[in-house]
Design a protein that fits this description.
The protein has nine helices and eight strands. By secondary structure, it is an alpha/beta fold. Bound molecules: pyridoxal-5'-phosphate (PLP). The site of pyridoxal-5'-phosphate (PLP) has 15 residues, from β8 and α9. Pyridoxal-5'-phosphate binds next to β8 and α9.
């Protein structure tokens, strides 16, 4: 495919995705600017990243530290989000290359992130990844990337992030379990998010909804949708 054809494809996909988001906001009685699109560019080349930025996408995300580190320095005029599972020894790289982390799920990670952020003189906005496993089918194995902190443990982890130097508590993130009803799962997240906001009014982001379930997420109060396939097309798995 030539660069022009790819750019046209991304432009068309972006138009349809924006229309979907807009329609979902209207249907939910929410203002159209209530939802931010985060383009998840994992497995796609940096040329796509640049093309999306040129088309006006301001928020981009990756789920592997190696890929973030490879792409972010080439595209600095956007906000980078990290949405993947994170080992504590990669905290510094995330702090250097991303402004928002969607997957804070444990205390040891908070400590590593805080140290790295202080050392680097940066502030990292942190979303707590909440497990919605209770909404999945009882017999399903928990899929990779569908972890997170149990809803009952959110207040304690939130207090830790809120009190950590170099970190800013931004809100919650979740992935609807495979086989769940996304309205129910994101409904559960909505309750967790609202409790969190009552304690921490600034923690008002709700990162929920991917290519397959963004409408349900927007009905349930998502402020950020994370879209890969709907924007960039089918992914070829990395080794
Ligand atoms: C890949 C990924 C997405 C995007 O998923 P699509 O189904 O391609 O839209 C969103 N969130 C996370 C955490 C991901 O890893």
């Amino acid at each position: 495919m030539t660069a022009d054809t790819r750019e046209q494809e991304l432009r068309d996909n972006l138009t349809s995705v924006r229309e979907r988001i807009q329609a979902a906001c209207v249907a939910a009685g929410r203002p159209e600017d209530a939802v931010t699109l985060v383009a998840i560019t994992k497995t796609f080349p940096v040329s796509d990243v640049r093309a999306l930025a040129a088309l006006g996408v301001r928020d981009l995300g990756e789920n592997r530290e190696q890929e973030l580190k490879a792409k972010a320095p080439d595209c600095q005029d956007v906000t980078w989000h990290f949405v993947g599972q994170l080992q504590s020894n990669k905290a510094r790289s995330i702090v250097r290359n991303a402004s928002v982390l969607h997957s804070v799920d444990r205390s040891s990670l908070v400590k590593a992130l805080s140290r790295a952020a202080v050392d680097e003189g940066r502030v990292l906005r942190c979303l707590l990844q909440v497990s919605l496993a209770e909404y999945g089918p009882a017999d399903a194995a928990t899929g990779v990337g569908r972890g997170g902190v149990a809803p009952a443990d959110v207040p304690e982890l939130a207090a830790e992030v809120a009190g950590a130097d170099g970190l800013e508590l931004g809100g919650v993130m979740a992935v609807a379990p495979l086989g769940s009803d996304p309205d129910e799962a994101f409904g559960g997240l909505e309750v967790v998010a609202s409790r969190l906001r009552s304690e921490h009014p600034g923690a008002n982001w709700v990162s929920a909804g991917m290519s397959g379930d963004l409408e349900a997420a927007i009905r349930r109060g998502a402020t950020h949708v994370r879209l890969g396939r709907a924007l960039l097309g089918t992914r070829t798995p990395l080794g």
